[in-house]
Amino acid sequence: MEEGGEPLRLREKAYASFTRHLLARDVRPGQFVSQRELVALTGLPLGAIRELVPRLEAEGLLTTIPQRGIQIAHIDLTLIRDAFQFRLFMEKEAIALFTLSASNELLAGLRREHEDTLAKGLAGQLTPEIIDEAQAIDWNLHDTIIDSVGNEIIAKAYRVNSIKMRLINQERFRIDGRVVPVMREHLTILAAIESRQPERAVEAITEHINNARALALKV
């Protein structure tokens, strides 16, 4: 069957390669590219790219414009509002469930890495490597909350939106210079989860997401 064969593997490889290059800024939001350029970028055959384009269009990561070519999704106010609203809807429900299901061991590990990073930030020890680690810790908390639901449909939809969120972060507000406030907000969220009070956790993550949304819209 094709689902377990080479065509599927090529499609997934093409998708992973494209999104990796997109997040690495090898192609930029709003940029026009051709299918041939995508072949050169990903190192994959034209057939795989032709099958990839409809999926990326459906996910809102690019648009095919007649006579002009393929345009990478550009960051505008509509995309920012939509992406943040999606996050809010998903994460409010997920964190309510996570607050009741997360193990003490998992929460202790999350708290420890946030506190360690906050301490480095307060001590002025934010090297580029530590900033990258802080960004990974930031994304990991949100991914962990979503993944705890155990729903593959939700997880996949959230991952697509996460790509858009990361593009927004790159264009509008990077974690550079914001490591300390982000870690503090996350520790507030973790404290709310540790209280095992879903309403409190929902309030904490709502404030965190709305703060990020305000920054993205203000720039």
Structure description:
Keywords: DNA-binding, Transcription, Transcription regulation. InterPro entries: GntR_C (IPR011711), TF_FadR/GntR_C (IPR008920), Tscrpt_reg_HTH_GntR (IPR000524), WH-like_DNA-bd_sf (IPR036388), WH_DNA-bd_sf (IPR036390). Residues 8-75 form the HTH gntR-type domain. The chain is mainly alpha-helical. It has two domains: 2-72, Winged helix-like DNA-binding domain superfamily/Winged helix DNA-binding domain (Arc Repressor Mutant, subunit A), CATH 1.10.10; 77-218, GntR ligand-binding domain-like (Four Helix Bundle (Hemerythrin (Met), subunit A), Up-down Bundle). Helices cover 74% and strands 5% of the residues. The chain contains nine helices and three strands; from the N terminus they run αβααββαααααα. It has helices at 6-23, 35-42, 46-58, 77-101, 104-122, 128-147, 152-172, 179-194, 198-218, and strands at 32-33, 62-65, 69-72. Strands 1-3-2 form a three-stranded antiparallel beta sheet. A hairpin with a 3-residue loop joins strand 2 and strand 3. The longest helix has 25 residues, at 77-101. The protein is globular. The N and C termini lie far apart (49 Å).
